[in-house]
Each structure stands twice: as structure tokens, then as C-alpha cells.
Design brief:
single chain, 410 residues, alpha/beta, 12 helices, 42% helix
């Protein structure tokens, strides 16, 4: 649809509407899947009006069909049902509205829904969204619990009552949303993301009571599964009863069989914790008492030993040994000193006996030249050479005279 327009040459609204209608009329019929949110069957009217909505998107479109088309499935189709419609797009020019003219309506059966869920489950598992290593542990004692549930629902009452009975100080941040129908998925996704953005929320619980497979379909929606997988906060899935298993159970960090079970798994029981503290305290007391008794027995055994009963006995025994060793060392030292003194006296006597002074005392003399050299032979002394004679009492000068005799110097 190529047109040349300008501010000076605009097209009338009717012409634009007719052009849009002509373009839409060229479109062929399509098969569309969605969920019926509004259904209008006026008595006597030949046309049925309904609104078809995408369960995962905030998008809806009006659908019209002849009464006989809808009457063929009227017994199995109602508001909230999922259907597949074969329809042709139509443009209502006077009001500028787009709608679908349905030629056939088929309800989506449970078997087909389950098959689609199984295919989606395999696809998400292949991406690793259900892997065990992605699961995060829950905090032992959450200070603030985020709760996503239906308004004034039994699930909300069960979670709040059981949790507060188990731990009265626990606080909740509740988001009431639609838990079935076409508005369930976007509201639950928005609530989960809001709670995940609150840093003070320690864990998020998504709770709903039991229901049919169709009622629980929102909790197997791909958009919700991916939103939970992106959460930084641990998420607990508490949807339906034990046999129910939506895909939310697989992607959540923990699956609870029921909302009551979720409260028990998220919040510890104060009575159980107090009992555990008492048990640990008693165990610690027994351990300390056992240790003290063991040490007391060891101390008593040590005190009963002779060395502890008479500690001075060891000192006395060692003192006697020290005194004996001291006396022995003194005796040995005395013998050594006596022996050394005797040997010194003998050596001194021998030295004195052999000394030149002793020889001189016996009347001998020593002749020396002026330079101090000792005369040992007469041939060493010249005629009239003066010598020095050294005797015991002193010394004097002598001179050699005559035929070799030596006399005193005149």
C-alpha cells in the first residue's frame, strides 16, 4: 500500500480505513491458538462474540463466529478454555477494528496439552534450566519471605499460619496474584521479579492449592519458568498437591509437596531448634564433665606417686650424691696436688744440685774472658791475658803468668 500524501493533501479517515481493510482482506485464513477470556452468546443472536488471549503475552484479539460454529463445541468450551481457531482476519472500517471471523473452533485436549508440556520440558532441560548444580540452598533462618499466591487463598493462609507457628518472628512480603486463567502468567512473573529485586527478601515461595491440569497450566508456562531461572533469590515451588508436577517444580531451587510443606521447609521450628540447642548444650556439658573427671583422675594418680608425696626425697638423694661426688673430687684434687708438689720438690732439688751456683759453693770457680766467654782450655788463654774469675762469694780478676799458670792480678 504505497500512497503519496502530505500535510496539504491528506487522505480522509474513511479512505485510510478502506485501504487497510482491502489489505487485510487479501490475507488468508490462519489457525490461531489462545485462551477464551470473554464469551458473549446473546439469546436469539446469530453471531457469538469472544475474546482470544495469548496466555503468555498481554495480547488479545476479538473473534466472531456464526452460532452454528460455536454450538458444535459449546458443551466442551467455556471461558478459560484453550482452543484452536481457524479464522480469517477482518477489518471493520466504520470503527477501525480488527477481528477474526472463525470458521472452526477446536478445543485443545488434555493429551495434546500434556504432549506440548513434555516437549517444552525436554527443550528446557536441554538448556540446563533444570540442572541440579543450578539449585541454591535455602537460608537457614530467612528474615523476610516473599510469598506469591492467590488473594485470600487457602495456600496463603496455610503458609502464613504454619510459618508463624513454627517461627513467630518471621516476616512476609506477600504478592496476591491470579493463580489461574489468562492473567495468571504475567501477574506471577511480575510478582516474582518484584520480590527478586528486593534485597531484603531471602527466599521466594510461589504457592497455589490443588486443581485440574488446566488450572495448573500457568505454572508450566515457558515465560514463568525462565523468569524463575533468572532469579538471584532462591525460589520454592509449592503448587498443588503431591501428584501435581508443573515445570515450575523442576526449575525452582526446592520443590514442596504442598504450601504447608513449603512453610515447613522454609522456616525452622523454634521448638525443634530449642530442643536441638538443649541437646547440644547437654552434650557439651557431658563432654566438659568427662574431661574434668579424666583430668582429676590423672591429677590424683600423679599426686599419689612417691615423688609427689615426698618431693624433698629426690632432693635429699641428689644432695647425698652431690656431697659424695664433691668429697671424692676434693680427695682426688688433693692427691693430685700432693703428687704435683712432691714432683716439684724433687725437680727443684735436682735443679739446685745441678745448678752452677751449687758447683761454685763446693769451691769451684769459673773463668771468663772480658766478653763473657767461659774458658774451657788453657790453650784458649794468652800470656798475661786478664780473666775474670767467678766464685760462690763473688768474682775477681786474674792474669795468666809463667808457663801456663794463672794467678791473681797484682
Amino acid at each position: 500500500m504505497s500512497l503519496t500524501t502530505s500535510a496539504e493533501a491528506p487522505l480522509p479517515v474513511g479512505q485510510v480505513s478502506r485501504l487497510i481493510g482491502g489489505w487485510i482482506d487479501r490475507l488468508g485464513a490462519v489457525w490461531v491458538e489462545g485462551q477464551i477470556t470473554q464469551l458473549s452468546r446473546r439469546p436469539g443472536a446469530g453471531v457469538v462474540f469472544l475474546t482470544l488471549r495469548d496466555p503468555s503475552q498481554d495480547v488479545s484479539v476479538s473473534v466472531t463466529c456464526y452460532r452454528q460454529v460455536f454450538d458444535a463445541v459449546a458443551d466442551v468450551v467455556s471461558e478459560g478454555a484453550r482452543v484452536v481457531v481457524h479464522a480469517k482476519p477482518e477489518w471493520y472500517a466504520p470503527r477501525g477494528q480488527l477481528s477474526l471471523r472463525a470458521a472452526e473452533i477446536r478445543p485443545v485436549g488434555i493429551g495434546e496439552l500434556l504432549a506440548r508440556l513434555e516437549q517444552l520440558k525436554r527443550s528446557l532441560a536441554a538448556e540446563g534450566l533444570f540442572a541440579a548444580e543450578r539449585k541454591r540452598p535455602l537460608p537457614f533462618l530467612p528474615q523476610l519471605v516473599g510469598l506469591v499466591c492467590g488473594r485470600a487463598s487457602a495456600a496463603e493462609r496455610d503458609v502464613l499460619e504454619v510459618a508463624r507457628r513454627r517461627w513467630p518472628a518471621v516476616r512476609f512480603e506477600v504478592r496476591n496474584v491470579a493463580v489461574q486463567g489468562v492473567h495468571a502468567v504475567p501477574q506471577v512473573v511480575r510478582a516474582v521479579r518484584e520480590l527478586d529485586e528486593l534485597e531484603r527478601v531471602d527466599v521466594i515461595v510461589v504457592a497455589r492449592g490443588g486443581g485440574s491440569v488446566e488450572d495448573l497450566l500457568p505454572f508450566s508456562d515457558e515465560q514463568l519458568v525462565r523468569a524463575v531461572a533468572e532469579c538471584r533469590t532462591p525460589v520454592v515451588s509449592a503448587i498443588g498437591h503431591e501428584p501435581d508436577s508443573p515445570l515450575l517444580d523442576l526449575v525452582a531451587d526446592l520443590r514442596a509437596a504442598t504450601p504447608t510443606d513449603a512453610a515447613k521447609k522454609v522456616v525452622p521450628d523454634v521448638r525443634e531448634e530449642l530442643e536441638r540447642v538443649r541437646a547440644l548444650r547437654d552434650r557439651a556439658l557431658r563432654c566438659v564433665r568427662g574431661l574434668l573427671e579424666r583430668e582429676e583422675r590423672g591429677l590424683a594418680y600423679a599426686l599419689a606417686r612417691p615423688v609427689m608425696e615426698q618431693p624433698q626425697r629426690m632432693v635429699e638423694e641428689r644432695r647425698e650424691q652431690v656431697e659424695a661426688l664433691l668429697a671424692r673430687s676434693r680427695r682426688v684434687l688433693g692427691h693430685l696436688l700432693d703428687r704435683a708438689d712432691s714432683e716439684l720438690a724433687h725437680t727443684r732439688a735436682r735443679v739446685v744440685a745441678l745448678s752452677p751456683a751449687a758447683t761454685l759453693e763446693r769451691g769451684y770457680a769459673v773463668l771468663q774472658r772480658p766478653d763473657g766467654a767461659v774458658v774451657r782450655s788453657p790453650d784458649e788463654v794468652a800470656q798475661d791475658e786478664e780473666l775474670r774469675a767467678r766464685v760462690a762469694a763473688g768474682e775477681f780478676t786474674v792474669r795468666r803468668v809463667g808457663g801456663g799458670g794463672v794467678g791473681p792480678r797484682p
